[in-house]
Specification:
Layout lengths: L5 E5 L4 H12 L3 E6 L2 H14 L7 E4 L8 H7 L8 E4 L14 H26 L6 E5 L12 H21 L5 E7 L6 H5 L12 H13 L7 E4 L1
Parallel strand pairs: 1-2, 1-4, 2-3, 4-5, 5-6, 6-7
Length: about 230
């Protein structure tokens, strides 16, 4: 289904990011994962290359998205990323405290990882994607971009911004044939973010990473969809 295509997935070493990597890899896509922990990344890439072998090999980039200033250098210096026609912005930092109790540095980290880094990555990948087959950006947002919940002010703002980025960039890039969509998952108890959400702040859910990964795949292969922010609950 995705033979000859290449996806760059942030937050790809665990949880939803890795589930998306497995889903795309199982459909013939080459994947490049990004997260902070190089050792964990290496293990996951080895698993992907063993389970879903690809002629060009799956690979990884270790980088901390709390510092978006180095992203341009990372992308430009990684020769393999020039073939990436799919960008999945999946990395995220949760919040589980009232805004008045949240340290300022934590707020900055949430905004940098959840919103500023996707903005910069969209900018860096959009131009090179235009000459590639099936150019696609999928932003992993949250139902908290739509709903209000105690202790999630900075997180919700970051995801609301990600939705607006999705809609505006889709409008800007429509004539260039680059499709941009967002997924808004509900709570996924199996993820680190799902485990850290304060109990009772959001409604319980049986949503799995594989459910969301399947929806990501469906957006990537649908040639008509762009500018959509799709809730998955």
């Amino acid at each position: 289904m995705l033979s000859g295509q290449h996806a760059f997935i942030t937050g790809g070493s665990q949880g939803l990011g890795y589930a998306i990597a497995r889903k795309l890899g199982s459909n013939g896509c080459q994947v490049t994962l990004l997260s902070r922990n190089f050792e964990k990344l290496q293990r996951k890439v080895e698993e992907l290359n063993e389970t879903y072998p690809h002629p060009r090999k799956h690979d990884c980039v270790a980088y901390d998205l709390k510092d978006p200033s180095g992203l341009e250098s990372i992308v430009k210096n990684h020769e393999g990323l020039k073939t990436a026609n799919i960008l999945v912005n999946c990395a995220g930092i949760p919040q589980s405290s009232l805004l008045m109790s949240t340290p300022s540095q934590e707020i900055q980290d949430i905004i940098n990882v959840n919103l500023v880094s996707p903005l910069i990555l969209c900018k860096l990948f959009a131009r090179s994607m235009m000459r590639l087959q099936n150019p696609n950006i999928v932003n992993i947002s949250s139902v908290l971009a739509r709903d209000c919940s105690r202790g999630t002010a900075a997180y919700s703002v970051s995801k609301s911004g990600l939705n607006k980025l999705t809609q505006t960039l889709a409008f800007e890039m429509k004539s260039k044939k680059v499709r941009v969509n967002a997924i808004m998952p509900g709570l996924m108890p199996e993820t680190d973010i799902g485990k850290k959400v304060t109990k009772g702040t959001v409604k319980s859910s049986r949503l799995t990473c594989d459910d969301v990964a399947e929806k990501v795949l469906s957006l990537i292969v649908d040639p008509e969809l762009t500018g959509e922010c799709v809730a998955v609950e």
